[in-house]
Amino acid sequence: MPDPSKHTDPAGPAGLPGLAGPVGMNVDFAGVHLKNPVLVASGTFGYGSELSQEVDLNALGGVITKGISLRPRPGNPPPRIVETPSGMLNAIGLQNVGLEAFLNEKLPYLRRFDTRVIVNIFGESVDEYRAVASGLAGVAGVDALEVNVSCPNVKSGGIEFGTDVAQLKGLVSVLKGSTDKPLIVKLSPNVGRIADFARAAEDAGADGISLINTVIGMSIDPRTRRPRLANGTGGLSGPAIRPIAVRMVWEAARAVKIPVLGMGGILTADDALEFFLAGASAVAVGTATFVNPRAAPDLVEGLSRFVARENLPHISRLVGGVITGNA
Amino acid sequence: MRTHRAKIRERRDRTGPYRSLVLDAPALAEAARPGQFVMVRVSETTDPLLRRPFSLFRADGPAGTADILFRIMGRGTSMLDLLRAGDAIDVVGPLGRPFPSLPGQEIVLVGGGVGIPPLFFYAETLRRLEPARTVHVIMGGRTDGDLVVREEFERLGTLVQASTDDGSAGHAGVVTDLLQPFLGPARAILACGPAPMLRAVSEMAARSNTPCWVSVEERMACGLGVCMGCAVPVRSDHGPSYRLACTDGPVFEAREVLW
Ligand SMILES: Cc1cc2nc3c(=O)[nH]c(=O)nc-3n(C[C@H](O)[C@H](O)[C@H](O)COP(=O)(O)OP(=O)(O)OC[C@H]3O[C@@H](n4cnc5c(N)ncnc54)[C@H](O)[C@@H]3O)c2cc1C
Ligand SMILES: Cc1cc2nc3c(=O)[nH]c(=O)nc-3n(C[C@H](O)[C@H](O)[C@H](O)COP(=O)(O)O)c2cc1C
Ligand code: FES
Q1: Is A210 touching ligand 2 by the criterion CB < 6 Å?
Q2: pLDDT tens, position by position, B140-164
Q3: For B214, which of A75, A195, B116, B137 is 20 to 30 Å away at the CA?
Q4: Cα–Cα–Cα angle for A116, B220, B61, nearest 5°?
């Protein structure tokens, strides 16, 4: 954890709250220096250029890209999304441009900004994961890798790594050996004991963990008697999963020493504060961006205002600060 | 910036379950092109969570207004129906690619139900720019209430033909029954409506070498190209693939779409 005393706002809490470059907001996450602890979650912000009219990327702690595989993937047939109470199910099928096009066409744009770039990667075998990680090793402008071991949409692969402790460990150790970049392992919530998986990632050499990915779900149209998603099942995201996410971040953060990136249904500063208090050192905004394209920069402002209003020397003072019965 | 807090200047009951709203949104009105759409937040709470996509029905740059016309379908549109003049709503747009401008061509607009608003915007814009251009409109629906803004089309001076499934107005049948005389490379078709209609129109256009563009509907979470939820199956150089309805479309060249 960074030393909070080094980041005290010289203007003090009486300074204008929520203005540019707030001191007291920067964090070191898994060896990556973030100017503030707000990132955008994989698959909810495209490749970073799509919202250039709404969001100044310089205002964000970092951008996590859409999941990248070795070769381009077309994704699933439509319908790929369905709205559910306070959330949505998606079965995008990990559509992406593939590693080569990402490096040539997408990464150069992201490099123009003063923000951290974390590339989300996945594969259908250990070899494919390793090939993507090796392809990103040493690439300037890539600050860390986030390993998606938990996408519930793809029939072949993904899910096994994230729901089997031994396989997860195996995968992470291989990846640790194939890249110089910090490795953030994104855990699947579709398991019984999340702490076991958090520890497995840490033991295998992960520099950080992120959670939660989407919760596997299903919706059926009673009139047609068919699933509403062409894929049958999909991943649930949005405010509907927030309590699950907060609980899992709390359990995982207590089980490991590596930092935790929390996400799942965050819309507002209050939502994000739950995650910090549960033990997250940084947070990511996902589905909220669909509802409010400026959700992430708005969250940065909301959090800085909170830090100023509460006279906190640094936002990291909140991390793990939940007061439970035994405290 | 494509996000707007828009005050409703006027709300109108149209035929049947159709309503229209005039929104005070100068930046949107200035930028809007026919065929583009907006994402409307129907609730300030998290349920329903997602914005709803609606085509722009008109836009008046100098007046600073942009209109939508919607059919009450489910929860979101029922909530929109409760809004009154003076209320404010949160709108993102204009989004997507507009219809092509097609200089010199005789235009045939083919639409049904909620597909009619973007075609009206096209006709009205073309009338203002080129009053002499011939514009045909073939509109269809289940019943006469679905022939929304028919009179407005006629007042513009477009040549309107109509069909209804139940025969309550116009030809008893579907729009493609009326399309045959308008086919051929000298005219261009712009179509918007339900997928089966668009497929039928596209096939007739392909067989007759009539240039044709369609505006498609797909489920959308963001409307902004970031979620990849709105996949439209298309032909490409390397076989079938998907494009995004919200940023590559919603207007596509008809021969590109795999129905
Ligand atoms: C590009 C585009 C332009 C459109 N333009 C118009 C228009 O000008 N006027 C109009 O009345 N309607 C239009 N529609 C359809 C309109 O978006 C739906 O009727 C509306 O979303 C229904 O919302 P609801 O909450 O009432 O229905 P519900 O069925 O309760 O909605 C549930 C979910 O499904 C989605 N959904 C339902 N029907 C459709 C549909 N046909 N297309 C896409 N998503 C749907 C909703 O957005 C919501 O996420 C357009 C759709 C698209 C994609
Ligand atoms: C449409 C969509 C696409 C997603 N794509 C990815 C992906 O490619 N890789 C990944 O690791 N997570 C992906 N996610 C999961 C999100 O990054 C995030 O973990 C999850 O949605 C929970 O956060 P939220 O409730 O704030 O959206 C996706 C989520 C959504 C809604
Ligand atoms: S609706 Fe999200 S990419 Fe088109």
Answers
A1: no
A2: 999 999 999 999 999 999 999 999 9
A3: A75
A4: 90
